[in-house]
Amino acid sequence: MRDLDIDMFYDADKKQYYCIRCEYTGTEEDVLKFNEIVRIRYKAMSKRYTKFDFD
Amino acid sequence: MDKFIVNIIHRPELNPEYAEKVTGAGKKSEIGRSSLVDESLDIFRFQQETAHKNGLKTTIQITYASLFSQEIIDMAKSDHDKYGDEIGLSLLGLPCPEFEKKYHTKDFCIWMFSLEDKKSIVDDVFAKFHDAFGFYPESTGSYYMDADLINYIKKSYPGVKCAVATCWEEGPKAYHTCNNSWYTFMDGGPWAPWIPSKQNTHAPAANEKEDSGIVAIPHLSRDLIACYDGNGSNFGTHPQNVLRGMIYDSKKWEYPYLYNLIDQYRDLEKYNNGYAYNMMFVGPGWLNKLGRWEAPYELLKKSYEDGMAYYGKLKKEGKLTDMTMAEFADYYRGKKHYTEPECALWRDILYGSDKQLFWYCDPYMRACINMDQGGALVDLRNYSAKLEWKIGIGTDHITDCSYPFLIQEKYRAGYFTHYAGEGTVRSAKFSYKGEVADLCQCRTHAHFTETDAGEETAENSSVAGSVATAANTAGETAVKMRTLTLDPVEIVFSDLRFKVQSIITFKEGSQEIGFTRKIFDMSDPAAKVDVREYMTACYGTTEYSEKMNGIVLGIDADKKQELIEYQYKDRTKSVDGADKVWAKVPQIDTFVSMEADRKDVTGYVHEGYAFSPMFTLGYTGELGDKEELTTWLRLEKEN
């Protein structure tokens, strides 16, 4: 996720999101849940830095 | 006096490249739809108002399509008169019915056209601009501007002094991010403003003769770790890119990363004689009212307002100077001299590590030192070659503008490889009684100093000893030494432990990087440890290997020369007391060599093989406690 701008489409009949590149399918709730996983690796996402060297 | 300069750039488009696709889903393609035009005007108006509300002047980069809109022309004139905004001309935003009627193509990237078409388009666009405003622009730009294009513009419209000319590390990584459908390959260029050479846009000019006549600025100011390590598109001074990367709190709609990024750029004045730079250039498609990616319009709008508010706050506090592009070009030429490098000691501000890189760029090289790998050189471009690399339809490089690498740790594995072979990196190995340690395994940090070259010591003096005099555009001279002093690392073997300190020097104008290794605190003061200083390299612009035939490896020694012509045979040659080990890489006009400051070392070259299509240059020797070895890596143009 976010390594790729996923080609996500919505199937109104099935009320389901799906990816045209991989096998992912899910509801909007599921998509939003997985979006949060993207942020796990941004461990400093909420931190405000004031020092940028190690002097 | 410290100065943090910001360029805010807006471009009105009548057919934003993204908005066209998003809003057009399910509709028949019809460029110029009235609803899209209205939205584009609204976005431009919003961006301008937001900047002005925060006391910031802008550079309006008029697009060809918008030159057909009297409303946009009037808005630009009005904002120029009222706020001092510059009216420039972008070579983005070409598509419109008039353009398609004349050129019969959907191509929209100016550097990809044939040279004949480039000239024709430039003349069309500049003439139309002159018709609308009564003068020619002083600034222009695109995502990339190849040398032929810049040279033609400067020759035909000499008043042009500034251009957006590349987007840092937007190459294969960005292509992959965009589902292999975004053909902007422009790795290997400067991350901060520079004066492009006439031969190759990415390679800065070394003197007046090479000077293309413009000051180039990068498209966005990008995270010098995240953009290199990651996918390359989500980490810049572009609020909506930060949203695209999902680098925000989805409940609070907060994005401290954006401010950290701006602040780290401000901090770079420490390494560049009190000067730092930022640019923000958000195309209108990123503020589409249908939202973008997973972000609703309200968040897109808020992030732009917040970004501008932060710049505005810094300006009010006296910590920021806003300039137009043309104003900046004048400032830059007064501030920098040709051989003065751009330096950036950059830390991770996103992933929570203490990783630190040092980026160095001058007219002879672009280099990256990775402190997470013990000060290894992990990216290297030979700007000395001033590679004449024609770009566009009808050339050998239709879309590939990247300046070729000799070392690229992501595309050629770097230190760690699977099963066999080795990747591209410049590092050192130490061995004792069969155990081996590479400095790439030793994480550390670096400290930057700048001194007059006259203060150099014997240990860091240049082998070549021929430092170019760095005359600036104002006729002043300065030759400086930039030094990275790394915190010592400890190497522990079963029967021996010792510390190593690396000192890495960049002497201005020398075309060299010096690496000094100092050994101390050895547990057995009588022991000798084997040292291997090496550079494993190849050439390329993508992840995939290139043909190595034609490369020649050599060792020069007193009255002796050893050669290997590359045939993938895994051969090695070595000579005791070698003066120089080198490689000629004719594919990229490159001569790269290493020399050592001691004669009691052995120079070697290694060929590589099909599963490891690299070559290695290096020196081996022995070091005891309190001893040191210095080697130089030198880059030259081969032909």
Describe the structure.
- The complex is a heterodimer of chains A (55) and B (639).
- By secondary structure, chain A is α+β, with helices and mostly antiparallel strands.
- Chain A has one helix at 28-38; strands spanning 8-11, 16-19, 25-26.
- Chain A contains one helix and three strands.
- Chain A has a three-stranded antiparallel beta sheet with strand order 1-2-3.
- The mean pLDDT of chain A is 87.
- Chain B folds into two domains: 3-335, TIM Barrel (Alpha-Beta Barrel); 354-456 and 480-637, Beta-galactosidase, Chain A, domain 5, CATH 2.70.98.10.
- Helices cover 21% and strands 28% of the residues of chain B.
- Chain B contains twelve helices and 29 strands.
- In chain B, helix 2 (34-53) packs parallel to helix 3 (70-83) and helix 5 (115-133) packs across helix 6 (147-156).
- The radius of gyration of chain B is 25 Å and the shape is globular.
- The chains are: A alpha+beta (55), B alpha+beta (639).
- The A-B interface holds A 2-5, 7, 21, 32, 35-36, 38-39, 41-50, 52-55 and B 176-179, 230-231, 234, 244-250, 254, 256-257, 259-260, 263-264, 267, 270, 293-294, 345-354, 356, 445-448, 487.
Would you summarize the structure shown here?
The complex is a heterodimer of chains A (55) and B (639). With 55 residues, chain A is an alpha+beta fold.
Shape descriptor of chain A: elongated
Low-confidence stretches of chain A: none
Q: Which residue ranges of chain B are poorly predicted, with pLDDT under 50 across at least 5 consecutive positions? A: 22-31, 455-476
CATH topology grouping of the largest domain in chain B: TIM Barrel
Label the CATH architecture of the largest domain in chain B: Alpha-Beta Barrel
Coarse shape of chain B: globular
CATH classification class of the largest domain in chain B: Alpha Beta
